[in-house]
Amino acid sequence: MTLKELADRVSAESGVTPRDAQRALRGFFSVLDTEIEASEVVFLPGFGRLMKRQTADGKERIVLVRRKAAGAEAEDPA
Length: 78
Description:
Helix content is about 40%, strand content about 25%. It is an alpha+beta fold and about 80 residues long. The chain has a three-stranded antiparallel sheet with strand order 1-2-3, covered by helices on one side. Helix 1 packs across helix 2 (about 20-40). Belongs to the bacterial histone-like protein family.
């Protein structure tokens, strides 16, 4: 999904103009980028967390770990 597509969806759901939605999204992603550079984990309340991970070949990746839904229980693989 491109930034324009995301902004269009935000615009449709919130009633703001696509341009304002895109501006807000750019600001949001800029803050996320700054925060993830400053720490290993960025918590997104009610959604999950972004974490830095190192791949086997040494590349750094940012992964989203979704929070578990309320009442969801972990399955026991045993």
